Amino acid sequence: MPLKVGVIANPVSGRDIRRVIAQANSLQVADRANMLLRALAGLAACGVAEAVMMPERGGVAGHVLRHLAQSANRGEARFPRLSFLEMPVTGTVDDSRLAARKLAGEGVAAIIVLGGDGTHRAVAAECGATPIAGISTGTNNAFPEYREPTVTGFATGLAASGAVPKDVAIAANKWLKVCIEGAPSEIALVDVAVVTEQNLGARALWRADTFRELYVTFADPQVIGMSAIAGLVEPVGRDEAGGLMLRLAPAGAAATIVRAPIAPGLVEPIGVEDWRRLPAGRAFTPALAAGSIALDGERELSFGPRRKVSIELVENAFATINVAAVMRYAAAKGLLREGRLACA
Amino acid sequence: MSSNPFPLSRDELLRAYRTMRTIRDFEERLHFEFAKGDIPGFVHLYAGEEACATGIMMHLTDIDRIASTHRGHGHCIAKGVDVHEMMAEIYGKATGSCRGKGGSMHIADLSKGMMGANGILGAGAPLICGAALASKFRGDHGVGVTFFGDGAANQGTVLESMNLAAVWNLPVLFVVENNGYAEATSVEYATAVDSYVDRASGFGMPGVTVDGTDFFAVYEAAGEIIRRAREGGGPALLECSVTRFYGHFEGDAQTYKAKGENEFNRANRDCLKIFRARVCDAELASERDFALIDVEVAALIDAAVSSAKDAPLPHARELLTDVYVSY
Ligand SMILES: Cc1ncc(C[n+]2csc(CCOP(=O)(O)OP(=O)(O)O)c2C)c(N)n1
Ligand SMILES: [Mg+2]
Asked: What is the DSSP letter of B104?
């Protein structure tokens, strides 16, 4: 069977209110298509002959197909063969979910995901053991790392072909499981924030005085969004056991203030009451009686006395391609070199 | 009663519902009346898109101007134009907003900051730039909002206006009401970008996409954009994805729609149903509160239709009044 990699490109990520309340960028459809082509070129360079993509009507696929046809006209062989999953297109996040299930079912070696935290969340929830190679096109993007897509394609190809052993190439990830009245409802890949606003409205979070609790799977002081708050308090690695939980308060009411970039270009003083390590496998219930739950920075569920929520950290929840480790291994073993290397 | 989870008071929520219900009933009644053949000209119904006009207009007062479209009844009602005068205008009667000479596609009421429905696609955008420039000169903090469809968004006038608004830093909100179709042509076929936000980026202005069937999403996003514009932050674009429950115009057989599309949208994407369920769920209003408004609105529309039918036609000697302006 030829080596096959799946592709899920969300055509509509990065269009939310953060462009107005801050300076979030807005990646245009042609840019997204170019990013995908770069990732495909990386895959082909490592021997991946086939890519299977989620169909969409947003225009990314159209741009990609035009480029592939132009490249073929010129006799190039820079890209894998591209086909599309057979599925209806609704234009909603359900498409990403269904595509992830289908790709995992087809046994693709990995799934390249283009999108923000929301798209990655949808894919992670459905792709089982198939590893994800994430490319950031969204707004806040705490989960997918910023990286040139050609390199992501390269690493995915090296991992998919088995040139790099699994224990190097595949990383295990944590997620946060959110239950409503005890029943699993949603997941978050990076952070769950509990805020006083019960209204979901335009979904993004930016009114810092409404933040009350924060749960994170990892805390990186270099990321943007809610998890930046945790990262500036106590960094926790993606591969470390456990996460972090913090109690927050309006800046005027807390002894500790953290200045955190909660959206691109938006640095706000955040009141932090206390923090502690978040152990895996234990469900926590917010102290707030009513409010809403934001998953990876977007208000998704409202809760109240008649709709109780709990939050639990789960380890080994899904797999990703460890691009940095793959590329280091490839360099050390000379996987992308031919001939003898002279050192002067 | 539980605490209020919304950024609006109970009274404001009920006002928003009343506006949306008035638009819906107005349009459903026109759908019925138009089929009888008494109404001259074309009518394009706004049913299904109510949350968009209402969520935006809740942030505006009479000093703020809007420029509407051929599908303008909802914009007029949400901006406060008198429903009796609107109905009379659509029937071409002397008691109408424009003395019966405009009809559905030219309803205007400058006292309410409603600069007119418009039969010419994309014509509202340059108009609103002028209004916003006037506000900027006067320093009255008024903003201009121009509505256009996914089809009209591809008109040169709209793109030129976006450029002008950007370079002059005008307080303008460009609203794309993306209902998926321009007449029978789908947006995927006719538009070279996946989102109209890309168009805004091309002019260096921020753009936001929201679910236009979610009143609260529209309300919050529009609120931020309008406040920003009022404070001198410049123009922005808001794309609302909406659904159109009826045909392009009354009499359209809608053969280009998928089987069951209208039924699906009415069941799952009805902004009034969604609004009502949310507010009831939060116990801020009861089904009874909404039912009372429904009764009140139904009576208003009944009265508007019967008085429009009874009203006189404009007199022939009025033919040239209010038509030309001398400078
Ligand atoms: C300049 C111009 N060109 C063409 C038309 C004919 N026309 C009327 S409505 C319409 C489609 C408009 O589609 P859209 O902008 O998406 O608005 P919608 O009807 O969906 O609300 C067309 C082509 C017109 N009125 N003006
Ligand atoms: Mg349209």
From this structure: G
| Residue A19 pLDDT class (50, 70, 90 cuts) | confident
Q: For residues B169 and B176, is the Cβ–Cβ distance under 8 A? A: no
Kindly provide the residue ranges of all beta strands, DSSP E only, lying in chain B, ordered along the sequence. Answer: 65-67, 144-149, 172-178, 181-182, 185-186, 207-211, 236-241
Cα distance between residue A21 and residue A263, in whole Å: 9
- For position B131, what pLDDT does the model report? 98
- For residue A33, give the nearest of A6, A66, A4, A5 by alpha carbon: A66
Which atom of ligand 1 is nearest the CA belonging to B183? Answer: 11
Give the model confidence (pLDDT) of A141-164 as tens digits: 789 998 999 999 999 999 999 999
**In this structure, CATH architecture of domain A4-163:** 3-Layer(aba) Sandwich (3.40)
pLDDT at B1: 44
Task: Provide the CATH number for the domain formed by A175-315 in this structure.
Answer: 2.60.200
Tokens of B36: 């009888």
Q: Where are the domains of chain B?
A: 10-270+287-307
Fold (topology level) of B10-270+287-307: Rossmann fold (3.40.50)
Residue B203 at interface with chain A, using a CB cutoff of 8 Å: no
d(CA A235, CA A227): 10
SS3 assignment, position A336: coil
The helix-helix angle for B287-310 and B271-281 (nearest 10°) equals: 150
Specify whether the CB–CB gap between B56 and B173 falls below 8 A: yes
Q: Which helix (H) or strand (E) holds A247?
A: strand A243-249
Cβ < 6 A, ligand 1 pocket: B 44, 70-71, 119-121, 148-152, 177, 179, 181-183, 248
Grouping H, G, I as helix, E, B as strand and the rest as coil, residue A45 is helix
Is there a contact between A26 and B206 if contact means CB atoms under 8 Å apart?
yes
For residue A133, list its beta bridge partners: A112
Give buried/exposed letters for B295-310 (b at 16+ CB in 10 A, else e): eebeebbeebbebbee
Residue of the nearest CA to atom 21 in ligand 1? Answer: B149
